[in-house]
Write a structure and sequence with these properties.
globular, 418 residues
């Protein structure tokens, strides 16, 4: 995943209005679902029910004024990395899940440099295999910390999670969790003696196990307050792994939800292959079947250029294929985080799914009570006969002409019954 720390990414977005061609509108009405009072037990009944319609969430909110946060609270289900929790609680008829951002492998505060850490906790700093270069992530200067050290985990909990809990946050948004070691993390110094923990290579079973152990221990701490537990929602994407991979099951057991920054657009670089797309949907369904949530970010194009309507519709049709009771979608330009990026397309009255997604001919179809989601993952155009006796509109409100639709290669459509 890319670096989604507020201090590094939100600065990119300031002053650049997010424009999604033909589908952006200012804040107006409230969203659908009434949810229980914000005093509810978060583990017993955590998520706003996403069964009906399209449900959106926010990725950071640093570009939204406190005065406008109440509008956001009326229509978004979840906030990844909220600047504060209290403003969202002014809306009392629905409980938006509000999370506090921390990176899972590094110090959130870049001002604490190597000299500071060598004085305070020299054994917490992770180095590359040259034994002198900190294993920095994404070219930033936030100090890499030893996720395998229980003292580090306790420090993360006491320094960030406990204060967040007291401030009214529901969850910890743990950034950049993964199964690979892209930054060549290798070892630490214990009492001045080098201890090699990992190989420094991208694929390392010991590194995977220590990452999974971090999830398990950190979630246990978050759940330890039985009267007011918190969720753990890491930023994790399958990135080529299959749902059946043996690493996935322990991950799913140790989280309360997942944010996928990869989404259906691979960080804005490309659309998925058919095999990748199917795995994403299976992962969505697996999490929701266990009462856990799935939130997907979908980036496309440089900021200010607009996300093309065909990309928006492909993302929404894909999201609808896997959406059950606990899933949300976010669409923006690349790293266009922090803004109220509401789309009129999110208001589509498609209703609730009446069956699971299935392949019909060469396309995938999922019926809804008042519409259809259709996706073509082939490299060539594909057609679908529409159900007899039904007429539909496109997302933009224009009527579907005839009783067959033709989809371009790797595209999706969302049809709303008239």
């Amino acid at each position: 995943a890319t670096n989604t720390e507020p201090q590094s990414n939100m600065g990119i977005g300031f002053g650049v209005a997010l424009v999604v061609v033909g589908l952006l509108r200012p804040a107006t009405s409230a969203r659908w679902h009434h949810h229980k009072s914000h005093q509810h037990n978060v583990l017993a009944d955590p998520w706003i029910d996403s069964t009906n319609g399209i449900h959106a969430f926010l990725t950071f909110d640093s570009g939204i004024s406190v005065a406008n946060i109440s509008k956001a609270a009326e229509r978004y289900d979840f906030v990844w990395g909220a600047s504060e929790a209290a403003a969202y609680r002014k809306v009392t008829d629905r409980h938006v899940i509000v999370s506090k951002y921390i990176p899972c492998r590094r110090d959130p505060d870049a001002k604490r440099n190597l000299t500071w850490w060598q004085l305070e906790h020299p054994d917490w700093v992770v180095y590359q295999c040259d034994r002198k270069t900190p294993a920095f992530s994404y070219h930033d200067t936030n100090m890499p910390l030893d996720m395998a050290n229980p003292d580090v985990i306790r420090w993360q909990y006491e320094t960030y999670a406990l204060p967040a809990q007291q401030q009214g946050y529901d969850a910890i948004a743990a950034d950049n969790f993964g199964f690979t070691n892209p930054f060549k993390a290798c070892g630490v110094y214990k009492n001045g003696v080098w201890v090699q923990r990992w190989t420094g290579e991208g694929e390392d079973p010991a590194y995977v196990q220590d990452n999974l152990s971090w999830l398990q221990q950190f979630q246990a701490l978050l759940h330890s307050n039985k009267t007011n537990p918190m969720y753990l929602i890491p930023n994790f994407s399958l990135s080529g792994f299959n749902v059946t991979d043996p690493k996935v099951a322990p991950l799913v057991q140790s989280v309360d939800g997942v944010l996928s920054e990869q989404g259906f657009t691979h960080w804005g670089s490309r659309l998925p292959t058919e095999a990748e797309w199917v795995q994403k949907l299976k992962f969505m369904q697996l999490l929701q079947s266990l009462g856990k949530a799935y939130y997907c970010i979908n980036e496309w194009g440089q900021q200010g250029t607009g996300v093309p309507p065909n990309v928006v519709e492909f993302v929404l049709a894909s999201y609808l294929m896997g959406k059950e009771q606990a899933a949300g979608v976010y669409i923006s330009n690349i790293q266009g985080y922090g803004w109220d990026s509401w789309l009129t397309a999110y208001e589509a009255k498609i209703g609730a799914a009446t069956a699971s997604f299935a392949k019909q001919g060469s396309v995938y179809v999922r019926p809804f009570s008042t519409g259809l989601a259709v996706v073509n993952m082939k490299a060539q155009s594909s057609s679908l006969p529409l159900p007899a006796g039904h007429t539909y509109n496109h997302l933009n409100g224009t009527a579907v002409v005839g009783n067959t639709i033709t989809l371009a290669p790797v595209s999706g459509v969302v049809l709303i019954a008239k």
